[in-house]
Amino acid sequence: MRLHHIFKRLSRQMSNPRRFLVTSSVHKSLTNRRLLVVAAATALLLSGSACGNGSDELQQSSQRETDAWAVAQPDPAARWLPILATQDLAVGVKRIAFSLDGLGPDDTPPTVRVSLFALDADRQSPRTVQYARFIAYDPKIGIAPHGHANATVSDRSLPIGRGVYVVPVRFTSAGLWGVLLEMAVDDVQESVRLRFSVRDRQAAPSVGDRAPSVDSRTRDDVAALSELTSDPDPEPGLYASSISEALTDGQPLVVAFATPAFCHSRTCAPVLEAVKVVWRELSSEVTGIHIEVFENPGEPERLVEAEAFVAWRLPSEPWVFVIDRDGVIRYAFEGAVTEEELRSAVEWVVQDGSD
Known about the structure:
Layout: H1 3-14, H2 30-49, H3 56-66, E1 81-84, E2 92-101, E3 111-118, E4 128-131, E5 133-136, E6 163-171, E7 175-185, E8 188-198, H4 243-246, E9 253-258, H5 268-282, E10 287-292, H6 307-311, E11 319-323, E12 329-334, H7 339-354
Parallel strand pairs: 9-10
Antiparallel strand pairs: 1-2, 2-6, 3-4, 3-7, 5-6, 7-8, 9-11, 11-12
Helix pairs in contact: 5-7
């Protein structure tokens, strides 16, 4: 194919932003993305055109194999567009989550096989291969129109399907990593690669850290719970104590940072519901606190991040932390978490402290 024909095809594909693979750690200007894609494509095309005719086919084949991760772009006719929903990736065990844009409310969720690659070390052989678990959303969950005093908050918004897939992984080193997602349902099979960076340490507090002590607001500080939460059906018990008070009362603690009405990923509401259920079951043994991500949920036209959310250095929402009697974080869930997972974590921390 001649060079000008290849660029013409690239131009047509880039005219539709939905055809670009966008991971949750990005959500920056699509214009910048397109420039990067064109630059990468140009480098590949020019290096290929410089070869002699006798080695063209071998050279291009080698480039395709070597650079399979270079330009992360799905087939323009792809049925599903995977979106990485976990943003704070660091060395250690992590539970990554992703959604499939294009998965409709009446569609059967495809099975997804996840192959994990340490791209700086080996781009051909996966470290692990496993199937992701699908967690469906309540179809009634939506998002209220809103604005932000700090426009960067909107950069965390994610396109979303009808649920989220989760899979546990272990990152053994900082650097560039990737997952190959192989999706299948009925007679449809698709695959997409996602690339992302892994840091030495995550931005949010980690397992083993002491929980940051913050004088978060309680129900005694306001006239109505609607000043503390965007939850339309709040559990009053989750607003009885501040984080600083709870860290000194000698009980395990569950802290949920979530914004049910304004959560673009739509995971905040189901996560908070899971927290309510588990806390009600174990309220005699564990303190529960919900921190609304925004200080002023009653002013959706100009939302300001809550002091506690900022103090905990959280780059996304929702987050749920399970903290032991000594104030040490034992579990940290970013994104979706089920009742079963949270109950198991809380019961473990409660039992561990009773030995």
